[in-house]
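Aim 2 progress update. The chain analyzed this quarter is reproduced below.
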Amino acid sequence: MSAKPTKSVRLGFERNCKEIALDVLQHSSPLPAGIRETVKYRQISTSVRAIGLVEPIVVAHSRDNAGTFIVLDGRMRLEALREQGAQTALCLISTDDEAYTYNKRVNRLSVIQEHRMIVRAAERGVSVQQLADVLDVSPGAIREQFKLLDGICGEAVSLLADKPASHGMFKVLKQMKSFRQIDVAQAMINLNNYSIKLALAMLQTTPPEQLTEAAAAKNQRGGPTEALQRLQRELAAVQADTKLLEEGYGPANLQLEIIKTYVGKTLLENAAVVRWLAKTHSEYLQQLQLIAEIKQLGAQ
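Predicted structure tokens:
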């Protein structure tokens, strides 16, 4: 038997970035008024001046004007380069149509990715003061960034690497031991909630043996009140009930679908059965008809 021919996968972008003259980079509409006065634009402008273009500008070939490119992402970076007198920019060329909405598909830098970028910049010789100027924050905030992942286990870092977690959430996570960090990270992903409030709630329900020594000692000195203890028990019970519901939802939903199909396709399409029910048990017939008419089980 002959093997099926393999299908080639079309790349969404050209393999290598290219230096392209700014004169041939175009965009469909001008930048919004006042954009140059925003903090974000100042950060980008300072970053470009201090350490160059960190992220390439994303462009696509223009259909209307041969030899020109449409800017899909990086308008402010391009404007900052033009203000500073640059002649070319490093660009990533999209092979898709210029109508491709890049911003809807690109993942912005997460806190962990931002941390890694700052660490790499420091390793390349950029000073703390330069990084502070670029990001428009204090040198102390940059030093805090260096320590962001201290005390966080590798598995939890991998789970949260591209998630919109906050700096404060990691401070809470550091008070837990590795296995508990992984549990909390996985729970946040399942709930799609990376707030400090959720992290604190899960910290409060963490057994002392799963806390770091400092956090356990602090918790023991503070001594939770009776109301907090009751809240912890109730939250644990709700989490257990939710887990049971999640495990049983799929099989129960499948069973209901089978019942609905049987009622609609087998019972109610049998004229003899319908006549018998109408004559002897009309109330059952009415309920069976309601079941057969259900469109979405989840909505009932």
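Residues 226-267 form the longest helix (42 residues). Strands lie at 18-21, 25-26, 57-61, 69-73, 88-94. These observations will guide the mutagenesis experiments scheduled for the next reporting period.
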